[in-house]
Amino acid sequence: MASTASTSQTNASDLPAPSNLEELLASGWKSKTVKQELHDNLMRLLANGETLFPGIVGYDDTVIPEISIALLAGHDVLFLGEKGQAKSKMMRGLVRFLDEYVPYIDIPDVPVHEDPLRPITRAGKAFVQANAPADIPIGWWHRDERYAERLSPGTKFADIIGEIDPSKL
What we know:
Blueprint (H helix, E strand, L loop, with lengths): L3 H4 L13 H7 L6 H14 L15 H10 L14 H7 L7 E5 L16 H9 L7 E5 H4 L10 H4 L9
Antiparallel strand pairs: 1-2
């Protein structure tokens, strides 16, 4: 798996400093769940008075407060509505509530970007157990690369709208 620096438009000088697990631990970095990231960054944006969903018009007193409450409470969110109501745009906008960068174990044998403090794959766990922290390389994953939309081959996004019957929820 290539490091973030080689797979994105990010300059190496823009990345956080720790390049191995020893440096990461010394930096005081703490592992967080995605929900905690969303919560913490939403709180920061609210405290700074920033617009939460730039480009979304007309939902300041309805939808946006509901989404904010759900994220602050750590709830899962399901977007339902007619075509053209900014559901996709709001989902894509949630990316800005993620931490700008998160570290991962940067070795080819690990098939996913793993939290260096809490690896979940067999390869990641084995690598962390078998190596000194100074020998465990850390890559940095930018928030824009952490979000992706996935559809089955041959499926258009419009095809999945309406598959959920709101009256049955």
